[in-house]
Specification:
Blueprint lengths: L2 H16 E4 L29 H4 L7 E2 L3 E2 L10 H8 L12 E4 L9 H12 L6 H9 L4 H11 L6 H6 L18 H7 L1 H10 L13 H9 L10 H20 L10 H15 L4 E9 L9 E9 L4 E9 L4 H18 L4 E6 L2 H7 L10 H11 L5 E6 L6 H12 L4 E4 L7 H9 L10
Parallel strand pairs: 5-8, 8-9
Antiparallel strand pairs: 1-4, 2-3, 5-6, 6-7, 7-10
Helix pairs in contact: 6-11, 8-9, 11-12, 13-15
Length: about 450
Amino acid sequence: MSNVWSGITENAKLLNDGMRIAVGNGRRTLFWDHKWAMNETLSSVALGPIPMQSLGATVEEMWEPNQGWRWDLFAHLLPPWALEQIDSYGLKQDDGFGDLLYWGGSSNGNFSIQSALRLMKKNNAIGQDNSKLWRTIWDVKAQQRVKMFLWLVMHDRVLSKANMVKRRIGNDTRCARCNDLEETTMHLLRDCPAARHVWQTVGGPALSPSFYVGSLQAWVYRNLRTRDGIANDMWPSFFAITPWWLRRWRNDHLHGRHDRIPIDVSHFLHGKLMEVKRVLTPAVTQILQSSSVPVTTFVRQAGDGGLIRDHYGKFLYGYAARYGSCNAFRAELRAVEMGMEFARSLGYKRLIIQMDSSACVMALKEVSPYSGDCVHLVNHCRALMHLSDWMVEIIHVYREGIRAADWLANHGVGSEDKVKTWQEPPPNLLQILTDDIRGVALPRQVTT
């Protein structure tokens, strides 16, 4: 490639990084893959894979006229801070309010050479004062060898063929796998067809076209950021270990050690991530419990329900159960017992139990001795909480804070099944989950 075309290509990347869209009616703006709500695409911060039917959706298609955003289509896929930014936008249902491009590198939206240079410096500069960048690398939850490799990547000191030729080690810069393009660090870890295949297999943010843009340093930094989480809480770790193994598999290929390269790379990398998760990052989850004990004319029925969520509020697991006649205290304890047993079966290592029964919280925290008719339930719950292979914390919340669990409890009472479980949230529960993620406040009457 000539110097002229190299310059055009580099400047095109800079313009792409700096352009933003001022949304009017949202008809020409892609919801996931255009920069309109913030300085990056929504697909780059998604908490998980985006459904295929939603990938090409426009902003207008995510908006309901006279009602607002269709939160049920995307709220469960984005972190709370991204939803807050989307919530600040509103669409104009008018042909006169089209979507407009503007320059995001300046405060007034106008392009200038000074703002372009400032953006270029922000994307590429690695200076001694850039402590936030280096802190991001050293804080990532991964093995020390992986952190050291990322440090080499950020300094472009990985021994790719291009870097080896610069050090007068050999004279061939062609990629060892595709045997075509120059093997730079970026090509080795991201742009080579073999590397892209691995990233596509990994999934998550790597499925978005925006994953493959930006300079080497900006690409690494963007995926390692832990500010409110990018994609999900374990994505930085997953991203960190994948380049390390890409470099190792490249070396195995170069030296003919093909038997060391796994056939199912996705399964292999997920296994390595689980090793990191077990050793360095016990899962932080929340279990929200509630019970409902409605009284009918002839029989008093009790039910409980609960759900397990991660610390971003994402639904992980739900359950509901129907009992015979019992008081609220027993129903609440059975809800906690069932929830902890489910959590252990799912392999969680840290659990925060939230419930609205202060009596149960006091009994389980052993604030006061208990020897009533539920003593066995209390003792069993305490024993589960104090097992040495996990950490459990129990806190009291008001009923308005556990509406989702309350809905499941009421569902348990009316269900024909004795016990019912969900791995995906029931459709009728989505609005409550969306309200929780958005932080919708509910009034509470307090007597004085």
